[in-house]
Amino acid sequence: MSNCDQRIKSCFFALSLVLVLLPALAQTEEEYNSSRKCCSSEYAGVTYYQTGDYVEAEKWFRQAAEQGDAGAQFNLGNMYDIGRGVEQSDAEAVNWYRKAAEQGHTVAQYSLGEMYYRGRGIPKNNAEARKWLNLAYAQGFAEAGILLAEMVLDEQKKGK
C-alpha cells in the first residue's frame, strides 16, 4: 500500500469518526450530564441488584426511572411486581411498566399486557392486553405470542 493510499485511508477514518461523534458533540453540557447521570444510575441499580442489595438497587433505579430511563422504569416495575427490595404492589408495577412500555420497551410492553390480561393492579381488559402484547410480539418477543395464543384459547373456552 502506498503512502498516499495510507493517508487517504487515515483521512476517511478520521472523517468517519467525526461523523459518528458529531451528534454527541452537539449536545449541550446539561443534556450530556443528564444522559450520563441517568444511564449511570441504571447501571448502578443493575450492579446492586445483581449483588443482592435490592434496597440500594431500588434507589438507583428510581433515580434513573424518574429521569425517563425506560430500562430503569421496567426494572423498578419488576421489583414492585415481585416484591423484591420494595413492598409488592401490582398497581406500582403497572405504573412503571406503562412508563417503560410507552417508550417502546419490549419486555415492559409484554409485562403490561400480562397485567391487563390477568387483571393484576388494573382492571382486566383483554383489548388493552392484546394491544400491548401485539406491540411486544411485533418486536420479536416470542413470549407475547404465547400469551396471545393463551388469550385466544381462553376466550374460545368462555364462548366469546
Q: List the total number of helices.
A: 8
Q: What's the alpha carbon Rg, rounded to whole Å? A: 22 Å
CATH superfamily: Tetratricopeptide repeat domain
Unreliable spans are 9-38
Number of strand segments: 0
Major beta sheet summary: none
Estimated share of beta-strand residues: under 5%
Question: Which key terms come to mind for this protein?
Answer:
160 residues, mainly alpha, Serine Threonine Protein Phosphatase 5, Tetratricopeptide repeat
Write the layout of secondary structure elements.
Blueprint: H1 3-25, H2 29-50, H3 54-66, H4 70-82, H5 90-101, H6 106-118, H7 126-138, H8 142-157
Helix pairs in contact: 2-3, 3-4, 4-5, 5-6, 6-7, 6-8, 7-8
Describe this structure in words.
There is one protein chain. This protein has 160 residues and is mainly α. The protein has a single domain, classed as Tetratricopeptide repeat domain (Serine Threonine Protein Phosphatase 5, Tetratricopeptide repeat, Alpha Horseshoe). The chain is 78% helix and 0% strand. The chain contains eight helices and no strands. It is elongated, with a radius of gyration of 22 Å. The relative contact order is 0.07. About 19% of the residues have low confidence.
Could you write a compact summary of the structure shown?
The chain is mainly alpha-helical and 160 residues long. Helices cover 78% and strands 0% of the residues.
